[in-house]
Design brief:
mainly beta
Length: 130
């Protein structure tokens, strides 16, 4: 059974920073995989934030472009999402998903954005105050 656990959420003032972590465990890790962060604000649909692919690429959404860094050292280490210059619109529940296979970061962004995976965490909540 694959387990995905997000952490690092909390309350932060506008302009501040947070680093979210996503730890996946419970299986012999795939040789090729991709991982993504999505978020869902109250009353809104879930949207993609950023993606990391084991092929070496990353993507990020226009809404966070220039403000985030997504990183993952190897298949057994957590996926990190650093968000800087936080804005009120970053307030949301942040979810991490894992997909096995060879996908470019952009393709992974599309697939996980559609929910194409059974491997999701319960989310970590981020609140940005003025």
């Amino acid at each position: 059974q694959v387990q995905v656990v997000e952490s690092g959420g909390g309350s932060v003032q506008a302009g501040g920073s947070l680093r979210l972590s996503c730890a996946a465990s419970g299986y012999s890790f795939y040789s090729w995989y991709c991982m993504a962060w999505l978020r869902q604000a109250p009353g809104k649909e879930r949207e993609g934030v950023a993606t990391f692919s084991s092929t070496g690429g990353t993507t990020d959404a226009d809404s966070v472009k220039g403000r985030i860094t997504i990183s993952n050292d190897n298949a057994m280490s957590p996926l990190y999402l650093q968000i800087n210059s936080m804005k009120h619109k970053d307030t949301a529940m942040y979810y991490c998903g894992v997909l096995s296979g060879v996908y470019s970061a952009a393709n992974c962004f599309t697939r996980l954005g559609k929910g194409e995976s059974d491997n999701w965490g319960q989310g970590t909540e981020v609140t940005v105050s003025s």
